[in-house]
Predict the 3D structure of the following.
Amino acid sequence: MKIDLTNIPPEGKGLDFSLTPDWWKSDLDEDRIMGLEGPLSAWIKLYPAGKKIVVEGSLSARLLLRCDRCLELYGWDLSTDFRLYLLMSPFRGELEVELSEDDLNLDFIDGKFLDSDQIIKEQIILSVPMKTLCTPKCKGLCPMCGCNLNMTRCSCSSRYETSSYQ
Ligand SMILES: [Zn+2]
Ligand SMILES: [Zn+2]
Protein backbone atom coordinates (compact mmCIF):
# COMPACT_ATOMS: atom_id res chain seq x y z
CA MET A 1 0.00 0.00 0.00
CA LYS A 2 1.29 3.49 -0.87
CA ILE A 3 0.83 6.09 1.86
CA ASP A 4 0.88 9.74 0.87
CA LEU A 5 3.33 11.52 3.17
CA THR A 6 2.45 15.05 2.14
CA ASN A 7 -0.85 15.33 4.00
CA ILE A 8 -0.27 13.86 7.42
CA PRO A 9 -2.35 15.73 10.02
CA PRO A 10 -0.57 17.06 13.14
CA GLU A 11 -2.32 14.47 15.30
CA GLY A 12 -0.99 11.71 13.05
CA LYS A 13 -2.48 9.10 10.81
CA GLY A 14 -3.01 5.51 11.80
CA LEU A 15 -3.55 2.47 9.63
CA ASP A 16 -4.63 -0.99 10.66
CA PHE A 17 -4.49 -3.76 8.16
CA SER A 18 -4.05 -7.41 7.57
CA LEU A 19 -2.26 -9.20 4.74
CA THR A 20 -3.18 -12.63 3.45
CA PRO A 21 -0.57 -15.41 3.17
CA ASP A 22 -0.29 -15.01 -0.62
CA TRP A 23 1.09 -11.52 -0.04
CA TRP A 24 4.55 -12.89 0.72
CA LYS A 25 6.58 -13.47 -2.44
CA SER A 26 9.61 -15.69 -2.07
CA ASP A 27 12.83 -13.94 -2.62
CA LEU A 28 16.04 -15.60 -3.73
CA ASP A 29 18.07 -13.41 -1.39
CA GLU A 30 15.95 -14.46 1.54
CA ASP A 31 15.78 -18.24 1.57
CA ARG A 32 15.08 -18.61 5.30
CA ILE A 33 11.50 -17.36 4.95
CA MET A 34 9.23 -19.60 2.90
CA GLY A 35 5.97 -17.79 3.49
CA LEU A 36 3.23 -16.94 5.94
CA GLU A 37 1.25 -19.63 7.69
CA GLY A 38 -1.72 -17.34 8.29
CA PRO A 39 -2.67 -13.70 7.81
CA LEU A 40 -0.30 -11.01 8.99
CA SER A 41 -1.74 -8.22 11.06
CA ALA A 42 -0.10 -4.84 11.33
CA TRP A 43 -0.65 -1.30 12.33
CA ILE A 44 1.34 1.74 11.29
CA LYS A 45 1.12 5.22 12.70
CA LEU A 46 2.71 8.27 11.07
CA TYR A 47 3.04 11.63 12.73
CA PRO A 48 5.09 14.78 12.16
CA ALA A 49 7.86 15.69 14.60
CA GLY A 50 9.58 18.90 13.55
CA LYS A 51 11.18 18.28 10.16
CA LYS A 52 10.79 14.56 10.52
CA ILE A 53 7.99 12.12 10.08
CA VAL A 54 7.91 9.36 12.62
CA VAL A 55 6.71 5.96 11.45
CA GLU A 56 5.76 3.61 14.23
CA GLY A 57 4.38 0.20 13.72
CA SER A 58 3.80 -3.25 15.02
CA LEU A 59 3.28 -6.52 13.26
CA SER A 60 2.48 -10.08 14.12
CA ALA A 61 2.31 -13.17 11.97
CA ARG A 62 3.18 -16.82 11.93
CA LEU A 63 5.95 -17.41 9.41
CA LEU A 64 7.06 -20.55 7.68
CA LEU A 65 10.81 -20.83 8.01
CA ARG A 66 13.22 -23.37 6.63
CA CYS A 67 15.44 -25.08 9.17
CA ASP A 68 19.16 -24.54 8.48
CA ARG A 69 20.03 -28.06 9.57
CA CYS A 70 17.31 -30.42 8.34
CA LEU A 71 15.76 -28.14 5.65
CA GLU A 72 12.21 -28.88 6.87
CA LEU A 73 9.66 -26.06 7.16
CA TYR A 74 8.40 -25.02 10.58
CA GLY A 75 6.08 -22.36 11.97
CA TRP A 76 7.56 -19.41 13.85
CA ASP A 77 5.67 -16.62 15.61
CA LEU A 78 6.80 -13.16 14.72
CA SER A 79 5.84 -10.17 16.78
CA THR A 80 7.79 -6.97 16.44
CA ASP A 81 7.57 -3.22 16.94
CA PHE A 82 9.54 -0.70 14.98
CA ARG A 83 10.12 3.02 14.66
CA LEU A 84 11.65 4.84 11.70
CA TYR A 85 12.26 8.51 11.02
CA LEU A 86 11.78 10.06 7.62
CA LEU A 87 13.51 13.30 6.68
CA MET A 88 13.01 15.62 3.75
CA SER A 89 16.14 15.67 1.61
CA PRO A 90 17.41 19.27 1.29
CA PHE A 91 18.66 18.53 -2.24
CA ARG A 92 15.86 16.76 -3.98
CA GLY A 93 12.87 17.69 -1.87
CA GLU A 94 12.17 14.03 -1.38
CA LEU A 95 11.70 12.10 1.79
CA GLU A 96 14.49 9.92 2.99
CA VAL A 97 15.01 7.64 5.90
CA GLU A 98 17.37 8.73 8.60
CA LEU A 99 19.56 5.70 8.79
CA SER A 100 20.06 4.00 12.07
CA GLU A 101 21.28 0.75 10.59
CA ASP A 102 23.61 0.54 7.62
CA ASP A 103 21.87 -2.38 6.02
CA LEU A 104 18.41 -0.87 5.98
CA ASN A 105 17.40 -0.46 2.37
CA LEU A 106 15.41 2.45 1.06
CA ASP A 107 13.07 0.73 -1.36
CA PHE A 108 10.09 1.77 0.67
CA ILE A 109 10.37 5.46 -0.17
CA ASP A 110 9.11 6.44 -3.57
CA GLY A 111 9.19 10.23 -3.88
CA LYS A 112 6.56 11.44 -1.43
CA PHE A 113 5.00 8.05 -0.89
CA LEU A 114 5.79 5.40 1.62
CA ASP A 115 5.38 1.79 0.56
CA SER A 116 4.07 0.04 3.67
CA ASP A 117 4.51 -3.41 2.09
CA GLN A 118 8.23 -2.81 1.71
CA ILE A 119 8.56 -1.60 5.31
CA ILE A 120 6.77 -4.69 6.57
CA LYS A 121 8.88 -6.98 4.41
CA GLU A 122 12.04 -5.28 5.68
CA GLN A 123 10.93 -5.64 9.30
CA ILE A 124 10.12 -9.32 8.83
CA ILE A 125 13.57 -9.97 7.38
CA LEU A 126 15.27 -8.06 10.22
CA SER A 127 13.30 -10.02 12.84
CA VAL A 128 14.01 -13.54 11.64
CA PRO A 129 17.00 -15.11 13.43
CA MET A 130 20.17 -15.53 11.36
CA LYS A 131 20.23 -19.20 12.27
CA THR A 132 16.87 -20.87 11.83
CA LEU A 133 16.33 -24.14 13.68
CA CYS A 134 13.09 -26.16 13.77
CA THR A 135 13.97 -27.17 17.34
CA PRO A 136 17.11 -26.33 19.34
CA LYS A 137 17.99 -30.03 19.27
CA CYS A 138 17.47 -30.57 15.54
CA LYS A 139 19.75 -33.42 14.45
CA GLY A 140 19.92 -32.28 10.85
CA LEU A 141 20.63 -34.41 7.83
CA CYS A 142 22.97 -37.37 7.64
CA PRO A 143 26.11 -36.17 5.84
CA MET A 144 26.38 -39.52 4.08
CA CYS A 145 22.89 -40.46 2.84
CA GLY A 146 21.03 -37.18 3.39
CA CYS A 147 18.19 -38.67 5.44
CA ASN A 148 16.53 -36.51 8.09
CA LEU A 149 17.97 -37.76 11.37
CA ASN A 150 15.02 -36.34 13.35
CA MET A 151 12.71 -38.84 11.66
CA THR A 152 14.80 -41.85 10.74
CA ARG A 153 17.94 -43.58 11.82
CA CYS A 154 20.29 -44.72 9.15
CA SER A 155 23.29 -46.99 9.58
CA CYS A 156 25.74 -44.46 8.11
CA SER A 157 26.86 -42.96 11.41
CA SER A 158 28.47 -46.17 12.65
CA ARG A 159 30.26 -46.66 9.34
CA TYR A 160 31.17 -42.98 9.22
CA GLU A 161 32.71 -43.08 12.67
CA THR A 162 34.60 -46.23 11.89
CA SER A 163 36.09 -44.89 8.67
CA SER A 164 37.03 -41.50 10.11
CA TYR A 165 38.72 -43.27 13.02
CA GLN A 166 41.36 -44.82 10.84
ZN1 LIG B 1 15.58 -28.98 11.70
ZN1 LIG C 1 22.78 -41.85 6.59
